[in-house]
What does this fold into?
Amino acid sequence: MRFKNIRQKVNSWGILSFIFTLLVVLPCIFILLHLLDKPNENWYHIKNYLLKDYIIDTFKVVSFTGIFTMTIGITLAWLIAAYEFPFRKFFKWALILPLTIPPYIAAYTYNGIFNYTGIVQRFFREVIKITPDPKAFDIMSTKGAIFIFSAFLFPYVYMISRSFLEKQSAALIENARLLGRSSSSIFIRVILPISRGAIVGGTSLAILEVLNDFGVVSYFGVQTFTTAIFNAWFSMGDSSTAVKLASMLMFTVFLVLMSEKWMRGRKKYSYTTAKVRDIVPIKLKGIKAVGAFFYCLTILSIGFIIPLLQLISWSALTYKAILNIKLIGLTFNSIWLAAISAFFIIIISIVISNFCRMNSNWISKIFSKISILGYSIPGAVIAIGVILLMISIDRNMVWLYKAIDPNSKTLVLSTSIFMLTFAYIIRFLAIGYQSIESGFDKIGIRFFEASRTLGYGVTKSFFKVDLPMIKPALISGFALVFVDIVKELLLTLILRPFNFNTLATKTYEYAGDEKIHEAAIPALIIILVSMVVVYLLYEIGDKEKR
Amino acid sequence: MFIDIKKISFKYKNAKIDTLKNINFGIEKGEILSILGESGGGKSTILRIIAGLETPSEGSLVIDNRILFDRNTFILPEKRGVGMVFQDYALFPHMTVEENIMFGLRNFSKKEKEIRVKEMLQLVNLQDFARRYPHELSGGQQQRVAIARALAPKPSVLLLDEPFSNLDAHLKSKIREELKVILNRTGMTAIFVTHDKEDVKSIADKVVVLENGIIADIGITSKILK
It folds into this structure.
């Protein structure tokens, strides 16, 4: 009986799922192993003099960004979901656009706008003829980092809360209106409590982005864990200290995730009735309509229009020098790297999620948890885990390399593009996995079962029935992963082969060399790619609703 | 007995009590048996066990002298030669009516496939709908496609899960008649699950009354439902 059960469950899908999840966990295991390394001088130095600053800076950036993204996100979501005002339809999707500008690009751009030679100070000097104190415009600080993160990450809260409010709240809001509550009182007494889960979910996504960020904080000189890990590794060449810092960062992430769980509470605020009406927006008039319009416009300008215009004007200055064969090479690098990694991620996601939906037991639960683990692990931590793993593999495989090619280098994997692809897979698997999983959820298991009773095995059924039906989920999963990889900076920077550049690393390099104008064109290409994908996904989502 | 079910018990994961306890019954070839009971009483689970979609905790299942399940055997659903019509029909939305019916005919030659699909379309009276997609059909038509699809590979038994529950009341008696005609014409052995005594009276030769996972009554329809 037992044996029969095992044979039924272990098939190639299960074996592949096991191998894939093992690959995802391995780098984490390597970090844990190195955690036991004896602390050295660097570590004591950091612990005695610097650690306090890391913790305080990280805490400041995380908590203020959390508060601001939450405030901006939920107010916008409420306005768009419950009221009708000029250009509401436009703002509804346009307010997602700040996500298409990676925060590190926003950071260079805003620094370029506000620094001594930037448009703001020039305006004061040349038009108003006063020379303001340059310090008043210095955004290269913790406050500046908070500004950038809030202005460009709020769409996480906005998107999740808005779709929640649109779908879930119609009856509650209408009831509250009938009971004679004013708009502000409905917002505080009804909207905030019912959308708590959505707000907390969106905010924690934004916070995870902050903890993962390297570009903004390193450019602004803010001392967070990510910069500290990077410095320990590259400036001091000290892997054991880097690992210790990485594990502290992981602990912080763990706290964020735990508090998310705790703040969501036990209650699930969602309807049990199948018929959920869309909320009918109230028409705003006069000053209120103008106010709503300008609020949305201001946020959109700061988070998208202003930096975009600035980048376009810079690229007009530099396109002659930049638009060349090298730029095409960079674009090509970014695109094929993202495409290949996204392809593997989708394949792995399909295998694991298909296995999980057919076997609901503790093994599949662990597989599914591990698949989404990577997204909460900051890039710096993944980078270190992957390097440690690859170097260790290389050391143990030298005999094989030499056997194949006597002149082979000793470090093969850890100097190849494979290492970077592997890290991307770990970090972005969650995104692919979740969209494939929701695709499978939508079609259910009935079609698969029908195919089984009509004579097809698990794998044949998958290719003939399930695969064609989850195509929309495949496309959106691929697009989401693709765009995230094109934007990705830290992993690419640390793990790329020598002299290998992508749009993201080149933008970072230009900006770091004070060539902000030259950084504009690669940055614009990244933003353009992101915009195309956002538009596609919006279209797909809209179609499915209809 | 053509189909022989002995001592089948079944428990869903995480459930405290057995969904099915010690189920025993048999069917002769060409007979139509109905499983009658309240919803949630484990009726559909019996069909799923026969189809191989669930694994019972004990018991045995034999169809046409072939052991499909016992202590040492578990034949996979795709190897059982059992046709099933799902409650929601589960017609593949990305395939036309024709393609849906052809789906199970993997071991047929191209010529045989065409002939068989034509036969089936004729049987369920949907000749003119071969190129339609499932969402372009009415509920009753969808059900007929589902029946045709399940019958096409010539299964040894046809299982129908609540075949009339998704249909409008005024269609019910008409569709019952149609199903009866189809089953009689093919001489198919069939098991169907329902909560409506009228369904049983008009179609079934034999009935199993299921209450809380155990068989409360079993016998010829006319004797059980007087």
Summary: The domain at 1-79+191-226 of chain B is CATH 3.40.50.300 (Rossmann fold). The first strand of chain B starts at residue 3 and ends at 10. The mean pLDDT of chain B is 90. Chain B touches chain A through 31 residues (CB under 8 Å).
